[in-house]
User: Fold these one by one.
Assistant:
Number 1:
Amino acid sequence: MYKYFNNVVSIAKALMIKRISKGNIVVDATVGNGNDTLLLAQLVGEEGKVYGFDIQESAINNTNLKLIENNFNESVYLIKDSHENIDQYVVDKADLIVFNLGYLPGGSHDIVTKAETTVIALEKSLDLLKENGLLLVTTYVGHNEGKTEDRQINKYFSVIDQKKFNVLKFEFINQINYPPVLYCVEKNKL
Ligand code: SAH
């Protein structure tokens, strides 16, 4: 496990490891290079299911290769479409849904997640969560588009009913250069 919580990526991973069990149904809403997708596939095992979304063909292909190389492709459904359409593909209720926003490292900076569609996808994701399910969202506030997106997400999460959801924001307040921020939303017992 992680000895130090010095970045939100480690915190998100630790939460995934803690909360996901074999047989769970989980969603990676932004597969990118497939690192989270592979971890999710390992955690849910053969009896579980991972849905992965990305709008870039290269992200889907790279992720698929990574899964095949590691022999973890069986339980993963990769979907080349925007996560705002998540409800058209994910039919089961999910134990955990993860969004790692921004642009693909090493890819085009023009293809970046956008506030408007992200918030729609988040609303749908909260509906899709099981009771006690977790939504993890990493935002990248170091660039303008990401800052705007983070503000919209913060605004949306600030007003959702606390009886229905527990919303936690992880933010390093002593680090330079606008480190990423992690939101963790848990669905309460209804
Ligand atoms: N910033 C992260 C990686 C983010 S990758 C890091 O540093 O690790 C974000 C991915 O989201 C990209 O691969 C991009 O293609 C994808 N993406 C952008 N808009 C999307 C959308 N509407 N639906 C699904 N995926 C999207």
Number 2:
Amino acid sequence: MLVIVKETYDDMSKEAAKVVADRLRKKPNLVLGLATGSTPLGLYKELIRMHKEEGLDFSKVTTFNLDEYIGLPPSHDQSYHCFMHENLFKHINIDARFVHVPHGMADDIDAFCVWYEEEMKKAGGIDLQILGIGANGHIAFNEPGSSLGSRTRIKTLTKKTIDDNARFFAKKEEVPRFAITMGIGTIMDAKEVILLASKASKAEAVKAAVEGPITAMVPASMLQMHRKAIVIVDKDAGSKLGAEFENYG
Ligand code: GLP
């Protein structure tokens, strides 16, 4: 695990964009795993800038998003479909045929999850997966207690996640209670992962993920077992990391 602590959110985002751009230049048909949430917004902004100003080319890229709320149509402004379109896809030259976001309105969710895993396999597997982290240590919607070997499936959201995500909805009651999410096993299959975290509210989760024991109660801690994981955090999110990590970055 490579841990990089940057001074600001902008620095964190630019560092992550540098890694993504490097992998994309080396492999134009990169298979990219994408995350939602407020944390990767700066990364997406920087990738858009690189596309517009430096010609960073996404035309051959395939993407798979980590998760989606169950019950929200793609047109809903809080769906992850909508989020990805507004914050990344519509600004770059990505081919819509190569974009995959879980379908929260699928008639048969279990069959959809099997299909999603198959599509990832057919694409050759995810080369680089972007991840955020929940304040309770979740990755994608793998809440504490999720099986460390889990695959794409339905998960019930915890009260903490519902409370944290309520800020995006008019009323807390509108936050969906269930989601489709890649499993921890699915995420671990990515050839490389980047975990991003910003703000003091994530400091405990980052510490537990990086320095704590590997436990299903902190799903992100499983990344300690990943062969190529980069953790990029801003100073506030990295503020609880032990003194022995002072040289990071
Ligand atoms: C949601 C998403 C996660 C994301 C987390 C943190 O629960 N499913 O993928 O990492 O929120 O979001 P934020 O970056 O807004 O703190």
